[in-house]
Amino acid sequence: MAREVDEHDTPAEVDAAFRTQRRVSAAYFTLFLVAVTGVPALTLALDWWSAGRLIGGMSPGFVMAAFGLYLFFFLIGLAAATLATAVEARMLGGPAEEPGPPGDGPP
Length: 107
Fold this sequence. Notes:
mainly alpha, transmembrane helix
């Protein structure tokens, strides 16, 4: 007995989705790298980044390192995951509409 294979995605579609996902991940990595290297760069470039005082006597650089980067990591992770899921859902998958049983459509 032959087994029926139900494939919806062609190799070209899978390759295009892979290339798109790779570009998206490279863009998010670049954004991540700029943000992570930007905190120490600001410390070297701006005096007020280290000498200024905010709530509780904390410097802006400390606040960014202690709290801001964690918020940034969460947001960039959420954005990357959301975009990756949307790209995959849009580029891969089966036909737009699966046929239903006969007589199940509008009258």
